[in-house]
Specification:
single chain; 66 residues; mainly alpha
Amino acid sequence: MNNVLEFRPKCPHVESLSDCREALEPAVMKIVSDAVGRGYTAAEAAMVIADIADDYILMLSRQPRR
């Protein structure tokens, strides 16, 4: 999960992105762990999380900027 590292040099909010990842990564890992405990594979859980995040990003992109 080091894809953010590739993005950091181009991002003007490096600290914010890094802090956000640090705060959220344990929660995402718990979601994956819970899904595995329910019988899904870690890959399935990660794909669903990514799909949900993608849908959310698309929804945000449709909202007017303030």
